[in-house]
Write a structure and sequence with these properties.
14% strand, six-stranded antiparallel β-sheet, 56% helix
């Protein structure tokens, strides 16, 4: 390559990192990883990661060096992607918490709504975000807040009910998204709306409803001036902002109602003081809830804070433990409802019911205190969603580490130990690798996928509580669990089969490997152990022991023969089926006699001692076997097949737990 072609490449790299041929600075990382670590530290763009490889090629570096750089580049890009994903999730949670804090200290509803629209636009990365509210007096909808809009006609739009995408969202109370607004005929187009959208240059639009109880009061939108597909997580995030916007409007209405009530009761000093005390309690609980959210409190902390302010007993209960009718009414109306002497506030997110806050023994509840209980239920739902998000993230990290071990992607023992330590797992301890699979027949693909997700969730929870790892693989789940002193792989397999089967309410079959040690130094051992566990799983299913658990130690040398789709039942039936059937019909002991005969070295004398019968009885039984199986059953080849069939027949019988 000529010098003229090399120089531009060198200039493009000079601002990304020092040339690879230069001496490393003191304390700088050595080897091919150094430039990529510097790029990661600086948060460089993805395109910059190609430059070290281009420079190495331009300088005519050896192929081994270029291959190493390519490998390091892929690892660095993967780390960069993971870091960006985590930063994005942290930014989303931070924005939700900041908005909840703004709501708790609400003074200006316009400022809160503006902040919500700004944060929604920033996190979703859209060109425009805006919020419309329904006008019950004029019977239409108007723009309340816009962010990123440049067209005056668009900012002043008033839409008739049922018109445009916003009208569709308001009618159905469900989110709607369009990739190309002007080509979408699911909603009613009008000249006024289309002109405003055209002036703004919008193409892709996502709208989610602002609801108070069962009523839609407006719509929150995110839009782009180009075609775009909004992901499910982005729709859910905008829905969370819409819930906070609705709460801000409801809180503003509540403050307006409170001020009106205070003005109307100005002549009654005692009532005014009582109302002031109620408002102070509401403000106090809002401040406490905001503080709990910011410092990472739990749902029971929220219940305790509300109980103290309302001077009662407040409990968080699972949905199944709350009164069903009252809970459904609260969820549908979006308000706390009275049930006998208690108050029930549904804890819900979107269409999912997460539980309830129950105020015990407090039949007379001030409306403001009722709103306080409802706010606490909303904050509880945010905390539960955040906790679920964190748990799912940890499950994914556990699965990624086990996937890396199974695929032998990362062979550095130090890095493997560090990753496992962050998950409270010890790769230097003795472990068992288990292959688990559902044995139910699903009605359709969706039900089968749902069942596999339930199995993975149950396995992930078990792995987290046992300081192990779990990942979805090969249509089932693989687990890496530590082996306690005095425990065996068989016992772990059976316990795991029972635990997972109970959790998913389906039969789960589990095959386990022999104990393995030193996984950090020998990641290939995990691959071999997983294959061994799968062979045990296949053996159990071939033997008809679905829903059971077993380890390689249970099968002896047969564990090497039982992999694949072999017809074990057919082999046993062809080989000793007539003897088994004879015993079942006559109540005889020919199978047991054959077992003892071979175990005693084919000696009738020792066989009669083993069975505690007369030698003539043994001879008569063996003669009957000869008539059933043929005169050549003593031959070496037939004898080996008969012994194998006897062993398989014995293994196929259920093992008592």
């Amino acid at each position: 390559m000529s010098r003229d072609h090399v120089e531009p490449v060198e200039r493009s790299v000079s601002d990304a990192e020092a040339p690879l041929g230069a001496e490393a600075a003191p304390g700088a990382p050595d080897g091919v990883e150094a430039p990529y670590l510097e790029l990661l530290a600086r948060g460089a763009a993805a395109e910059a990661y190609e430059r070290p490889v281009l420079l190495a090629r331009a300088e005519g570096r050896p192929a081994e060096r270029i291959a190493a750089l390519e490998h390091a580049k892929l690892l660095a890009l993967r780390v960069r992607s993971e870091l960006e994903g985590r930063r994005r999730r942290e930014a989303e949670l931070s924005a939700l918490f900041e908005t909840a804090h703004d709501l708790a200290g609400l003074r200006d509803v316009d400022a809160v709504l503006q902040a919500i629209v700004q944060r929604a636009r920033s996190l979703l990365g859209t060109d425009v975000a805006y919020l419309s509210l329904n006008d019950p007096v004029r019977g239409d909808t108007y723009m309340r807040v816009t962010e990123g809009s440049v067209a005056a006609r668009f900012q002043q739009l008033r839409l008739g009910m049922g018109e445009g995408l916003g009208g569709l969202v308001a009618q159905t109370a469900r989110p709607y998204v369009t990739d190309d607004y002007f080509r979408d005929d699911r909603f009613l187009h009008t000249a006024t709306i289309d002109a405003g959208v055209h002036d703004e240059g919008l193409v892709a639009i996502l709208g989610v409803p602002l609801t108070l109880g069962a009523n839609v009061i407006g719509v929150l939108f995110a839009a782009d001036r180009r075609a775009r597909v909004f992901e499910r997580e982005q729709i859910a995030l905008l829905g969370s902002f819409a819930a906070l916007a609705a709460a801000a409007i409801d809180t503003a209405n509540l403050l307006t109602e409170t001020r009106s009530a205070l003005a109307g009761l100005e002549r009654a000093n005692e009532i005014i003081q009582d109302r002031s005390a109620v408002i102070e309690r509401a403000s106090d609980v809002h401040d406490r809830l905001a503080e709990l959210v910011l410092r990472g409190g739990g749902v029971h902390d929220v219940a305790a804070a509300v109980a103290e302010v309302l001077d009662g007993t407040v409990e968080f209960t699972e949905a199944a433990a709350a009164p069903a009718d009252a809970l459904e009414t609260s969820r549908a109306e979006g308000h706390a409802v009275r049930h006998e002497d208690d108050w029930i506030a549904a804890v819900a997110a979107g269409g999912e019911l997460l539980g309830a806050l129950v105020l015990r023994g407090h039949p007379g509840l001030d409306p403001v205190d009722q709103r306080t209980l409802e706010r606490a239920a909303m904050v509880t739902s945010l905390l539960l969603l955040a906790r679920r998000s964190a748990a799912e993230a940890e499950q994914r990290v556990r699965g990624e580490l086990l996937d890396d071990l199974l695929d032998a992607r990362d062979r550095d023992p130090r890095l493997l130990r560090e990753r496992a330590s962050r998950l409270h797992a010890d790769l230097d301890a003795t472990h068992v690798v288990l292959a688990a699979r559902l044995d139910c027949a699903a009605a359709d693909a969706d039900q089968e996928a749902a069942a596999r997700r339930r199995l993975w969730a149950a396995a992930s929870h078990l792995a987290a509580t046992r300081h192990g790892l779990a990942a979805a693989r090969d249509g089932g789940t693989v687990l890496l669990l530590p082996l306690d002193p005095g425990d065996t792989a068989t016992e772990v397999a059976r316990r795991t089969a029972r635990h997972l089967g109970t959790a998913v309410h389906e039969a789960v079959t589990v095959g386990a490997s022999a104990p393995v040690r030193g996984l950090a130094a020998r990641p290939d051992a995990v691959v071999a152990a997983y294959e061994e566990g799968r062979r045990c799983l296949d053996a159990l299913r071939l033997l008809g022991r679905s829903g059971d658990g077993a380890a390689a130690e249970d099968f002896g040398f047969l564990g090497l023969l039982l992999a694949g789709d072999r017809d074990v039942t057919g082999f046993v039936d062809r080989t000793i089926g007539q003897v088994v059937a004879y015993d079942e019909r006559r109540g005889t002991d020919l199978v047991r006699t054959l077992d003892a005969y071979f175990a005693c070295g084919m000696s009738p004398a020792r066989t009669k001692d083993e069975l505690h019968v007369h030698v003539n009885t043994v001879a008569q039984r063996l003669e009957r076997v000869g008539r059933l199986l043929g005169d050549d059953w003593h031959s070496p080849a037939r004898a080996l097949e008969i012994q194998l069939a006897l062993r398989l027949h014995r293994l196929a019988s259920p093992i008592p737990h």
